[in-house]
UniProtKB/TrEMBL annotation, chain A:
It comes from Arboricoccus pini. Residues 212-454 form the SUF system FeS cluster assembly SufBD core domain. Residues 138-203 form the SUF system FeS cluster assembly SufBD N-terminal domain. One of its GO terms (biological process) is iron-sulfur cluster assembly. Belongs to the iron-sulfur cluster assembly SufBD family. It holds the Pfam family SufBD_N. It comes from the Bacteria. InterPro entries: Fe-S_cluster_assembly_SufBD, SUF_FeS_clus_asmbl_SufB, SUF_FeS_clus_asmbl_SufBD_core, SUF_FeS_clus_asmbl_SufBD_sf, SufBD_N. This is Iron-regulated ABC transporter membrane component SufB. Coiled coil: none annotated. PANTHER family: FES CLUSTER ASSEMBLY PROTEIN SUF (PTHR30508), UPF0051 PROTEIN ABCI8, CHLOROPLASTIC-RELATED (PTHR30508:SF1).
Automatic annotation (TrEMBL), chain B:
Keywords: ATP-binding, Nucleotide-binding. NCBIfam families: sufC (TIGR01978). SUPFAM superfamilies: P-loop containing nucleoside triphosphate hydrolases. The keyword ATP-binding applies. One of its GO terms (molecular function) is ATP binding. Residues 2-246 form the ABC transporter domain. This is Iron-regulated ABC transporter ATPase subunit SufC. PROSITE patterns: ABC_TRANSPORTER_1 (PS00211), ABC_TRANSPORTER_2 (PS50893). CDD domains: ABC_FeS_Assembly (cd03217). Gene3D superfamilies: P-loop containing nucleotide triphosphate hydrolases (3.40.50.300). SMART domains: AAA.
Amino acid sequence: MATALETVRDYAGGGEYKYGFTTDVGEDRAAVGLDESTVRFISNKKDEPTWLTEWRLDALRRWQGMVEPDWQKPQYPTIDYQAISYFSAPKSPDDRPKSLDEIDPEIRKTYEKLGIPIKEQELLAGIAVDYVFDSVSVATTFKKKLNELGIIFCSVSEAVKDHPDLIKKYLGSVVPQGDNFFAALNAAVFSDGSFVYVPPGVRCPMELSTYFRINAAGTGQFERTLIVADKGAYVSYLEGCTAPMRDENQLHAAVVELIALDDAEIKYSTVQNWYPGDRNGKGGIYNFVTKRGACRGKNSKISWTQVETGSAITWKYPSCILQGDNSQGEFYSVAVTNNHQQADTGTKMVHIGKNTRSRIVAKTISAGRSDSTYRGLVKMLKSAEGARNYTQCDSMLIGDRCGAHTVPYIEVRNRSSQCEHEATTSKISDDQLFYCRSRGVPEEDAVALIVNGFCREVMEELPMEFAVEARKLLGVSLEGSVG
Amino acid sequence: MLKIENLKAGVEGKEILKGLNLQVKPGQVHAIMGPNGSGKSTLAYVLAGRDGYEVSGGSVTFDGHDVTEMSPEERAAAGIFLAMQYPVEIPGVANSYFLRQALNAIKKARGEPEVSAAAFMKLLREKAAVVGVREDLLKRDVNFGFSGGEKKRNEILQLAVLEPKLAILDETDSGLDIDALRTVAEGVNRLRSPERSFIVITHYQRLLDYIVPDVVHIQAHGQIQRSGGKELAGELEEKGYDAMIGAVAA
Ligand SMILES: Nc1ncnc2c1ncn2[C@@H]1O[C@H](COP(=O)(O)OP(=O)(O)OP(=O)(O)O)[C@@H](O)[C@H]1O
Ligand SMILES: [Mg+2]
């Protein structure tokens, strides 16, 4: 992944102060708890316009009237929302680890296995080092190129100031403030995130990524991403990172909104490897994310690809609203759970326009004492004449103490639509393991090999430089799952 | 090279090998014949180190080392190869990729440098031509949707690439058509060398017409009952197991 990331890293590194990601907030910290004053504090700190403050407050009021959902499969202790601090400044260098020696050896081992260069390891571990980036000029070139094409790629905070019309028009237009409990919470207190706008007819020539930006800014907890592809535009966006990032916030409630206008295409790829907790299920991130894309224009396309290996609990359903005629939605997912992890993930495809198509390929791998659920909705409205869906859900079990469940919901309201659904459940077989091992492939590599084969269709959807690390990641995540 | 003494082994508490003796010298080809259920595949699995196959007595030494405590991958690195009676399918994993992983894993275990993708493809194409594996099978998933005969040839391709010291062929001839049998046998013959030994498990003398063994054994009831030259196979074909080992069976 070296070259592409190098570019992005340099860009993000250069952008760190340029784009105000680490604004100097010093000892500023919103008091623990959440009420109107917290929201005003955040909005004020970020120097936001009144309309956005009101927008947040509206979200807060809706959130206050909501009850936390409990229909999901994963169980977790009650979260005390008044015990969380909703705005914390990035750590000062004094509080950060000074060298890799201070980092949990387990995490370091993982970095090594993934082949992450030392410098990136230090970045990921949040070590207080002043980085001199290899070449500021790369960052400049990158930024310049995007500028020339009229592509906007910046933080949401920056976009609020520089592109208020776009933000006003699109923020919350796919995931409204009151959409659900966690989305409302996010709308009220979101810290920052990325904004992308690709103008009509422009094909973004490089993969855009939040990788280092988010880490540096520590905005991971209530992140908000907004991506707009105007008519005939194309963009591929990468979220996340294969290396486990250090994060002390347990609850992550992000929101991602995608908008594709006529003939536009957005490809959104995620590799999620947040801290899953220890072997005994202690600790770990709760990853409760709302991701939704709107294919507003005709012939538009939104494609979600996700590789989810981290977090104690993953609970999310990247969805597509297929409004434009002939629009297409895709969802490719690999969800790996090991030890005590739980995942409840899947997608929603809502067909509204004529001849809309959706394709769902979900691969679930459970090991240890983990539990994984695929939950998916395919809804075809009366207007969605000639709509088609293909769904394939495959589960693989490793060992006999884990669980895998498939919960498909299908609602078809017209006669000309078609839904196809296939589901399989298999166990990683002793035959396969022995076969690989007898050819010299060590047991853990054999598991990785077989699991990667099982997930191939999804892995192939990942951008090349992501795919190589993601392959390794599957193996690392399943370590200790056999034998 | 391989020395098996009074080997007792079984699966799920059931003893299948009941004091088996066998000695294979470098460069030799040994054929093992025997009725269904006599424990031939069990012997092969025990030699390859499959989990669940417990050794309860006797010894197996390979190149002077006790192998009974070694993992399958360690045995592979030591130079033991098993062409299986029922080759396994691995969906989603390209045949060529799998074989490169295997070769490099073995090289790594031996402290040798790994082979680059390009060098490997060249090697693989050469070997595939020798053992009669079509190029398109290299790109397909490991054994997935292969015909019975294609699977068997693929085993021999792996053998040719991994170049073990001891190759055990468990009924590689079953399921091969006449032409394939000849190609596979020719492939095996080309791999014969003073350092490389073979144990060929088969039900048919025909294979042994092509791969001429130094020694033929008849296995029954978990033991080697008789051993002899290649004429033993012919005799067996003529008389059948009952006549040859009937006394023991009774
Ligand atoms: N997992 C198992 N559990 C119980 N019995 C087993 C198991 N595996 C093999 N056996 C038994 O062990 C005996 C020997 O089997 P094995 O497969 O070694 O025979 P074989 O000589 O290879 O036969 P064939 O010529 O049919 O291939 C058979 O009776 C078989 O049913
Ligand atoms: Mg057999």
